[in-house]
Structures are given as C-alpha cells and as structure tokens.
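Researcher: Please translate sequence to structure tokens.
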Amino acid sequence: MLKRNEKGNLNFDSLGFELFVGGLFDKCKNVQELEWLEERMVEIIEITEETYEEELEVENASTD
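Model: Translation complete:
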C-alpha cells in the first residue's frame, strides 16, 4: 500500500486503501457504528503517528 519509488519518493496506493477501509465500513450496520469505527481509526492513526514522530525526532537528533 505504501512503497518508495526508484527516486526514493513515497507512493501511496490510495485506491487499495479505499478498498480496504471500505471493507471495514461495510461491516457497520448503522451510522453510529460508522462513526464509532471512524473514531477508533483516527485515534489509532494519531497515536501511531505521534509514536513514530517521536522516534524520528530522537533518530534525527542523534545524527545531527
């Protein structure tokens, strides 16, 4: 879903991601479940991003 091309730039397969997320939302039976799932996914993404950001900051500080 996320790869680097030959130039080293990130390439995100947004269609593949949309299909994956769509499969998750497809399991929901009402609007409340859709909103609940969205909230869970956002929380996971935010927490994971913060963790990786902190790790990158530490890594970059040690290379400066």
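Researcher: Any highlights?
Model: The mean pLDDT is 95.
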